[in-house]
Amino acid sequence: MPKALIVDDEPAIQQLFRYVLEEAEFEVQVAQNGLEGLSALASGPVDIMLLDVSMPEMDGRQFVTEIMRRSARDSRLAEIPFIVMTGENFMESGLNRTFSAAPGFVCFLPKMTPPETVLEKIREAMSPPSSSGSGG
């Protein structure tokens, strides 16, 4: 069973995506902020992360920066794909530069993205890259 970590301080987002992922047969952990997210990662690896930007205590930028720092000791951390879900305009706010430099970065999605689309992006991120070159 794949494992997902939701790092977001909004209860409605946590509940929605916990439900969506559990229905898709994921084991789901929820963290209220980056500090809790780091604790969750310390307890075991995950296959995908959904990450908010603005959170108390440790925001999404700080969380990703810390993961990159820790990946020098544990390379598995750098390999975890993550999707940034935000209400901010990521192109205008400079978020694009902050997150896209991280090895696991998949994409930005607005928080109002339909859950089915988010699940599709999660599945794409977890799929091994195609080596067939069939361009399908």
What does this structure look like?
The protein is of the alpha/beta class and 136 residues long. It has one domain: Rossmann fold (3-Layer(aba) Sandwich). The protein has five helices and five strands; from the N terminus they run βαβαβαβαβα. A five-stranded parallel beta sheet has the order 2-1-3-4-5, with helices on both faces. Helix 3 links the parallel strand 3 and strand 4. Helix 2 runs parallel beside helix 3. The radius of gyration is 14 Å and the shape is globular. It starts with a strand and ends in a 10-residue tail after the last helix. 26% of the residues are buried.
Low-confidence regions: 132-136
Oligomer: single chain
Main sheet: strands, sense, barrel: 5 strands, parallel
How many strands?
Answer: 5
> How many distinct folded domains?
1
Query: In terms of structural class, how would the helical and strand content be classed?
Result: alpha/beta
Strand order of the largest sheet: 2-1-3-4-5
Layout of strands and helices, then pairs:
Elements: E1 3-7, H1 11-23, E2 27-31, H2 34-42, E3 48-51, H3 60-70, E4 82-86, H4 95-100, E5 105-110, H5 115-126
Parallel strand pairs: 1-2, 1-3, 3-4, 4-5
